[in-house]
Amino acid sequence: MPRILVASLPFAGHVGAMTAVAGELVRRGHEVVAHTGAKYAPRFTTAGAKWLAWSQATDFDDADLAATFPEVGDGKGVRGGKANTELVLFGTGAGQAEDILAEARREPFDLIVGDHLAFGAALAGEVLGMPWASVAVTPLSLTSRDLPPAGMPVLPATGPVGRARDAVLRGLAKAAYRRFADPMHNRMRSAMGLGPAPAGSGLDSLYSPHLVLAQGVPGLEYHRGDLPSHFRFVGRLAAAAATGTELPPWWPELAAARAEGRPVVHVTQGTLDVDPNDLLKPAISGLADRRVLVVCTTGGAPPSALGALPDNVRAASFLPHDLLLPLVDVMVTNGGWGGVLAAVRAGVPLVVAGASLDKPEVARRVAWSGTGVDLGTGRPGASKVSRAVLQVVSQPRFRQRAQELSVSLTAAGGADAAGGLLEGLLAARR
Q: In this protein, which residues make up the domain named Erythromycin biosynthesis protein CIII-like C-terminal (predicted)?
């Protein structure tokens, strides 16, 4: 029986995609060992995988990063983003690799499959000299001659002047990578006895050169004429919906509201940036007097954290998207890629307020794809949220585009397609 290592950073959004991959590989008869933090071990063992703890890698709780890495603070702004990159991403990479290599010495792996930001999987694959695969759990950050560099607050150019602009920006980004990212990257590589990465390569060299499974589809991801052939879009990677989920007593109100012609608006900040003052409370305030039913999820906090709720607002800590989204007319979110893919997969248009990590990139892709509105900030005012929601509800083109891309996401195959591609890589190695 082939033995496969599946590695995931212990963040909820990453774990959702990687448990889908792990579960599919188990279903296909492989022995799967999951390397992730203790908080998410049960998610993988429930899917049938064995758990390999983060021992040399510094484990953490994604709901309170600052408890382990005080410099990260709330994760926002340039300082928070820099600390997150240095301490969480690059800082834990060598420890992840040491954990994986120790287990491989005990019993070899036939394949390594890593969340593309779990850098230890890439390092271990390189040290072992074996093929390994990346799962892109966020939008692609790969450098392209057709795009501005990832992280720049601009959309891809459409004319000669814009293309010249993007070329200049790519040059500036490469210089910045040499100065800021290369030292962190090379310290991590040196700890594993590896030579330096290509100068100014950013995260490009941390994608697998053998197989990259990219969440999303063309049309929701920017077009790249130079995308390598081993990058394959697989749609949305999500574990099967949980059965027996207890739903709140007000659940029937969702279908009743739609039957009355009242749009249902879902507001979520995911599970990482969960300060309700950022988006939940402005959305509640802005939509309080509108003829809509607002359904909020807090990402773990009790609904009482939102304070007194207007008559048209319902709240819960968590709700299963697979059950909720078919009853929703628009989703307001801070831009987690997994949640956005879930909405588009359900044909639901979006309003996105993204500020940290990859979330601004997600917001720009939503606007570029025609599936929703980018608010351009992570802390919008109440009136700005209200206007955007009414715009999306009143203009059918947003829902039509989401439904078109829903068809593409379904056709891409999800976990089943990912499993087939990974077995192809495994067969080529064997």
A: 303-406
Please tell me the distance from the alpha carbon of residue 333 to that of residue 316, in angstroms, as a whole number: 15
**What would the pLDDT profile of 59-95 be if each residue is shown by its tens digit?**
999 888 888 888 877 666 667 778 888 888 999 999 9
pLDDT for 90-131, tens place per residue? 999 999 999 999 999 999 999 999 999 999 999 999 999 998
Paired with 52 in beta bridges are 35
User: 3-state SS of the chain: helix, strand, coil percent to 5?
Assistant: 45, 15, 40
**To 10 degrees, the CA torsion angle through 237, 302, 79, 92?**
-50
The strand pair at 372-374 and 350-352 is best described as parallel
User: 158-195 as b/e, with b when 16 or more CB fall inside 10 Å?
Assistant: eeeeebeebeebbeebbeebeeebbebbbebbeebeee
Taking 50 as the pLDDT cut, the residues of the chain under it are none
H or E element, residue 293: strand 293-297
Which sequence spans correspond to the domains of the chain? 3-237+412-429, 252-410
pTM: 0.91
Other residues' Cβ atoms within 10 Å of the Cβ of residue 294:
25
Q: Which residues contact 419 (CB under 8 A, 6 or more apart)?
A: 21, 24, 25, 27, 28
Closest CA to 101 of 193, 218, 215, 1: 193
What fold does the segment set 252-410 form as a domain?
Rossmann fold (3.40.50)
- Distance in angstroms (rounded) separating the CA atoms of residues 410 and 230: 21
